[in-house]
Design goal:
- Two copies of one chain form a homodimer.
- By secondary structure, chain A is α+β, with helices and mostly antiparallel strands.
- The first copy, chain A, is 30% helix and 24% strand.
- Chain A is built from nine helices and 14 strands.
- The first copy, chain A, has helices at 30-44, 47-50, 84-97, 118-135, 190-200, 216-226, 240-252, 267-276, 298-306, and strands at residues 56-60, 63-72, 78-79, 82-83, 102-113, 138-147, 155-164, 180-184, 232-234, 255-259, 290-294, 315-321, 328-331, 337-339.
- In chain A, strands 9-11-8-12-10-13-14 form a seven-stranded mixed beta sheet.
- In chain A, strand 5, helix 4 and strand 6 form a beta-alpha-beta unit.
- In chain A, helix 1 (30-44) packs across helix 4 (118-135), helix 3 packs parallel to helix 4 and helix 6 (216-226) runs antiparallel to helix 9 (298-306).
- Chain A is globular, with a radius of gyration of 22 Å.
- At the A-B interface, helix 1, strand 1, strand 2, strand 5 and strand 6 of A face helix 1, strand 1, strand 2, strand 5 and strand 6 of B.
- Strand 1 (56-60) of chain A pairs antiparallel with strand 2 of chain B, so a sheet runs across the interface.
Chain lengths: 352, 352
């Protein structure tokens, strides 16, 4: 079965084009059923999803849950180090992790463009399935719509995640306090520059790869290391570390100082940013977290992160201070200082 | 504050165009923050959403929950009787209701097209807020992305809903039994024909309006009337009543017979379908449910639905039979019969 029913009475089911998405795949009829049966279920299959109801039924343990939603519109769909499917799982799972929650369930909503090659869809779905398995989340229900050629740039993917909150560890952007250390789990700027360089056909000595990854393992290690003293967690995606730190400074009413020489910006990202006139502090990351812990616990937290491959480049990049509340200030390599403001608009559109 | 920051260092923030969506509104920077603060929060505002975290925190009572996701790509965005915002709330809330669940929470993911007039966005958001309030659901978290002109046909909206399941009433498509009555809560074919007629500029004597509505009140009345004997609930959206009934016949391994003369198809819908060569049984509805109850309880269930304005046209349209399992058969007005099969593809694309 190829996804094409052969009893076609109805116009948008041309026979022959069996390797691409067609409008009929969004019909709710036999072609929709075949698309789900042939291309989604074999990858995502699990007992909840296989019921194919209009909604999934979940049994949750008693307690609070976290819910997060994100739509992914990255262009191009595939890039060095990942694709839209990897982002769609990691992005939402990481938003749950940043609440201190344990990610459990995911829904997926696809907008597919007529003409999208099935081989691309299959690769994206396979990547989503692997990413979900690795992150320990179950895809429990989904939806597929099809729009005409040119109307969705290949595909857009929404994921909504549900996680179980931890009553003992409740990080929040308002909990930063003077004396906290600002830690970062890995190198800055890789995701945004990987997509940008690939999209623009820029050639550097090495290919910059996206850092897209689930941060759940690092959060577990941090919880074990510092427990409720894990005050703030944030994954600096759109808008980069600069935007995330500004939001935290404002939510907590504190100042943040950063040391430029401590920022773990890889050489290739730094070179690409320099060439394009971009600041790596504003470039999106998809597998990096910012953690705020009391200064005396910083070394323990760093050691915990460094025990995992994802945290190999973990670094202490700054401090929370009482002065200049609501502002992020960078001490440059030359000893000067400059304010790291939030940008009004995009450095890099369509990055996630 | 108009949504335009004036300290623009960065290209996609043209000054001046303050009445339309711009790429910078999807940046995660100041323009994104302004969009959310100025256009979403005032409409959707509630304590959970106002925290603006990467995820919402929900306190759920002990028990099972239902989760449903749906992306809406209707074209045009506004049509007689509703808009994409009304559909995005009702569609997802109704999927939860059809599980017998009480809808409680909603997430919203917007893909906005550069150039979308704010007045359109504002109307859609206002309609969503009203629909959510009327349906008794709280919008708890959201996401906004912006894509270039031409890449999202105005806007696409994903909603994901969470509802509380009822342990006493658990309808399911596999629970139909011979002897059950097949009931419909209202007139068939209105939503699909409203969008279609409007999109194609077809003029009929009266304007056909969409039936988009939350079905939760009708489900509550049905539960009160027949409790656990509410065996199957289904909202016949994409693919219409024919597709929904075929799925139920297959899931339950039963036959379904319909009486053509009992189908509540309004005159204007019937005329429009005739003119376009469409069958109202395949046309999408967004405010109608199919309910299966044991034959002897049919009158009680109908009376319950008719006590609510949404159920004014409720009718018994058929029976579940043991013969021809997996098939839906229509007895025509002339006394003949014909098989009502599932269509392969679309009668009407981009209807929801």
């Amino acid at each position: 079965m190829t996804g094409i029913a052969t009893t076609g009475l109805v116009c948008p089911t041309p026979i022959g084009s069996v390797d691409r998405v067609q409008l009929g795949h969004g019909s709710g009829g036999k072609m929709s059923a075949a698309l789900i049966r042939d291309r989604f279920l074999p990858r995502f299959g699990n007992d909840v999803l296989a019921q194919l109801g209009d909604a999934a039924t979940l049994e949750l343990p008693h307690g609070r849950i976290a819910v997060s939603t994100d739509t992914f519109v990255v262009s191009p769909l595939e890039f060095p180090g990942g694709n839209i499917g990897a982002l769609a799982v990691h992005g939402t799972v990481n938003d749950l992790s940043m609440m201190g929650a344990e990610p459990r369930y995911l829904t997926a909503g696809f907008v597919l463009e007529e003409g999208l090659p099935f081989e691309v869809l299959d690769r994206v779905v396979a990547t989503m399935a692997t990413a979900a398995r690795e992150a320990g989340v179950l895809l429990v229900t989904g939806d597929t719509k099809v729009v005409e050629r040119g109307r969705a740039d290949g595909m857009y993917v929404n994921t909504t995640g549900i996680g179980l909150l931890d009553d003992a560890v409740r990080p929040g952007p308002h909990r930063a306090k003077p004396g906290d250390a600002v830690l970062v789990s890995g190198q800055l700027g890789r995701h945004g520059m990987a997509v940008m360089a690939f999209r623009e056909g820029l050639a550097f000595e090495s290919t910059i790869t996206s850092d897209t990854a689930s941060l759940a393992p690092l959060v577990r290690l941090l919880k074990d290391a510092v427990s409720s003293e894990l005050r703030v967690l944030r994954d600096p995606t759109r808008g980069g570390a600069a935007s995330a730190l500004n939001e935290i400074a404002q939510a907590s009413g504190v100042g943040i100082t950063l040391e430029e020489r401590r920022l773990p910006v890889p050489t290739d990202v730094a070179a690409a940013c320099e060439m394009l006139g971009l600041d790596p502090l504003y470039v999106a990351n998809e597998g990096v977290l910012l953690a705020f812990v009391p200064g005396p616990l910083a070394e323990e937290a760093l050691a915990a992160m460094r025990s995992h491959p994802l945290g190999a480049h973990a670094a202490r990049i700054g401090e929370v201070v009482a002065k200049h509340p609501g502002m992020v200030v960078l001490r440059t390599g030359l000893g000067g200082t400059r304010v790291v403001d939030m940008l009004p608009g995009d450095q890099l559109p369509r990055i996630c």
